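Consider a concrete sample entry:
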Amino acid sequence: MAKLRRRVIYTTVRWEETDPLTEEQIKKWKSEDEDLQEEVLDEVEFELANDKTIDDVDFPELIEDE
């Protein structure tokens, strides 16, 4: 007896956004100074804006009993 087997990988990609930034936060972010950008990241919260599931399916392989 034989059967088919395939590998399926499902990945969920999430896009998260913050509430609108203040002028001060925008200035810090645009400065490209990593310490200032870290300050902004510490001040904000990200929330789910969109997500998408992506699948990757391999072609089935034949599995035969020996």
User: Anything to note?
Assistant: The beta strands are 2-5, 8-17, 47-57, 61-64. The first strand starts at residue 2 and ends at 5. The chain has two helices and four strands.
